[in-house]
């Protein structure tokens, strides 16, 4: 059964029902007037007229009881010519809202009523002609009803597809936003963690160097002030991206790696860099390499302050890029730490690379990553 039968009648439904009612009444009265000369008793003429008009009136309820009224129309059509158009409309209603099997059963019942009508009304036309004519009318009504039904189903299918497409697009947009925010969270960890590690190194130097000269104290304070200002600036950029509907945090490139090393050296971290990677790296690979070096420096300053850090970044197109960081005697991380290394492993996996970390037999902590570099 069509679900449109249970919905509230719309303005268009009111217009259609009004036209159907008026058309059925008008045609019914014309047919009744044309058949006044039939040799029938007066009570049959009266029954024809009043039951036919009643059936026309019941067209207003055809959306509520379509099958019941169609069966009633088949019964009334046995003797009533006035109800002919109303019976056609009720049969078409069944074709619009129900499956073909139900429609065919109602149609067969109406064909039987037409045969009985030809016998009861004692028509001068042959019974075969009456049956063929009535059958053609019912076939036309059923065909129109099936067309309306198929069109409604097509529109409903297209509407559902559009709604599903909108839902899928909304979910994809939400997933994209979640991935963007996850990336922003990683950037916050990498950028702010590195800045705050520099602050910690200089603040610790001031705390353990009470005999430092005024110039040294002023220089360390200036570096602390500059790093704190830059950390706040990075935080503002992150908050701005989170508030904006669309946007990305400014991404570093592989070419910014020397600047990163220089900043760590200014902070007093003894860093030795060997860079041997001629050629143009893919952007995503270069950015991943930068983040690995940045996280390695941050961990070194956090867990082994003052210890020298050796960095090797070597590779070539077709062979891949190797990033290797090591520093002696780190302080082993406690439970709950190491989230930055987990994030680095995920970064490397996203570009189809791999990352390893751990302690060497000499007691150094080593962080090694291999990233693909297509030829």
From TrEMBL:
The keyword Membrane applies. Keywords: ATP-binding, Kinase, Membrane, Nucleotide-binding, Phosphoprotein, Transferase, Transmembrane, Transmembrane helix, Two-component regulatory system. InterPro entries: HATPase_C_sf (IPR036890), Sensor_HK_TwoCompSys (IPR050482), Sig_transdc_His_kin_sub3_dim/P (IPR011712). Residues 181-245 form the Signal transduction histidine kinase subgroup 3 dimerisation and phosphoacceptor domain. It is an enzyme of class 2 (transferase). This is histidine kinase. Pfam families: HisKA_3. The chain crosses the membrane at residues 12-31, 43-62, 69-96, 102-120, 127-147. One of its GO terms (cellular component) is membrane. CDD domains: HATPase_UhpB-NarQ-NarX-like (cd16917). GO terms for molecular function: ATP binding; phosphorelay sensor kinase activity; protein dimerization activity. It comes from the Bacteria. Its EC number is 2.7.13.3. It comes from Kribbella flavida (strain DSM 17836 / JCM 10339 / NBRC 14399). The lineage of its organism: Bacteria, Bacillati, Actinomycetota, Actinomycetes, Propionibacteriales. It catalyses: ATP + protein L-histidine = ADP + protein N-phospho-L-histidine.
């Amino acid at each position: 059964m069509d679900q449109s039968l249970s919905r509230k009648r719309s303005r268009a439904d009111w217009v259609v029902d009004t036209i159907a009612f008026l058309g059925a009444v008008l045609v019914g009265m014309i047919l009744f007037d044309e058949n006044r000369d039939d040799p029938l008793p007066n009570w049959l003429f009266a029954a024809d007229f009043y039951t036919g008009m009643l059936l026309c009136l019941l067209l207003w309820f055809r959306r509520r009881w379509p099958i019941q009224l169609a069966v009633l129309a088949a019964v009334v059509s046995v003797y009533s010519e006035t109800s002919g158009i109303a019976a056609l409309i009720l049969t078409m209603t069944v074709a619009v809202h129900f499956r073909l099997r139900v429609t065919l059963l109602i149609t067969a019942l109406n064909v039987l009523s037409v045969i009985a009508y030809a016998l009861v009304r004692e028509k001068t036309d042959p019974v075969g002609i009456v049956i063929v004519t009535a059958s053609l009318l019912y076939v036309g009504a059923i065909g129109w009803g099936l067309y309306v039904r198929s069109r409604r189903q097509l529109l409903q299918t297209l509407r559902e597809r559009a709604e599903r497409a909108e839902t899928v697009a909304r979910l994809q947009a939400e997933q994209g936003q979640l991935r963007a925010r996850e990336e922003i969270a990683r950037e916050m960890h990498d950028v702010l963690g590195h800045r705050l590690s520099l602050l910690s190194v200089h603040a610790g130097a001031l705390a353990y160097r009470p005999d430092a000269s005024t110039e040294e104290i002023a220089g360390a304070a200036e570096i602390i002030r500059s790093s704190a200002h830059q950390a706040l600036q990075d935080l503002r950029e992150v908050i701005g991206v989170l508030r904006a509907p669309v946007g990305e945090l400014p991404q570093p490139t592989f070419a910014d790696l020397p600047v990163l090393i220089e900043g760590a050296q200014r902070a007093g971290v003894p860093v030795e860099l060997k860079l041997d990677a001629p050629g143009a790296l893919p952007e995503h690979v270069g950015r991943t390499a930068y983040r690995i070096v940045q996280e390695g420096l941050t961990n070194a300053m956090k867990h082994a302050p003052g210890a020298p850090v050796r960095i090797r970044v070597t590779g070539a197109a077709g062979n891949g890029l190797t990033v290797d960081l090591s520093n002696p005697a780190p302080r082993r991380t406690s439970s709950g730490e190491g989230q930055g290394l987990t994030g680095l492993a995920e970064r490397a996996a996203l570009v189809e690379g791999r990352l390893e970390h751990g302690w060497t037999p000499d007691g150094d902590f080593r962080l090694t990553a291999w990233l693909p570099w297509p030829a």
